[in-house]
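Incident log, structure service

09:12 report received: a user says their structure output differs between two submissions of the same chain.
09:20 pulled the input from the user's history:
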Amino acid sequence: MVAIMNRSSIQETIKFSSLVPFQGTLKTRTDEDVVKMQASLLAVGQLTPFIVWVKDSVCYLLDGHRRYEAICRIGIHSPEVLSADYPVVYIEAEDVAEAKHILLLVTSQFGKITPKGLASFIKDCPKLDLKSVSIRARLPKVHAPRAPKEAPTHVVLKVKVAADKVKAVASVLDQLSYVEIL
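09:34 re-ran on a clean worker, output below:
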């Protein structure tokens, strides 16, 4: 029997079978996106509640469509997840237009992850798997010259880095206990 753990402190729940998707074709999700969400739900549980608007006794799903699709796919082999209760936050809206406006606010991304910001954020978590959380950011690459023939105890490497990448590279190198930046 499969169960998806609720990892939030939200006490309000809703039967999965009562959710009605509201987003339509606003966003596209790749098969890979949904498969990653399935894996996340099964491994870690549901971290955030569904966001729902109720109108005329219909529970419209405003946010959580990728989780919804992933749970539907899990339900093919484990139908019990389709009748389970999931955490929910209810949103008030006067009409469809206001509900759609709220949906756009909830699903919009106000900001961008930069390589410098990401390097700083994860510097104390070097084993963090960025692919598992679908972050597609390129950290600056450092190219070292060829290693000398002998293996000395100390090596000085000159690294050529674009001026705008120096801080990001230094941040990554600071994570290494055996590197000293001169």
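09:41 both user submissions now match this output. Likely a transient worker issue. Closing.
09:42 reviewer note: The mean pLDDT is 80. The chain has five helices and five strands.
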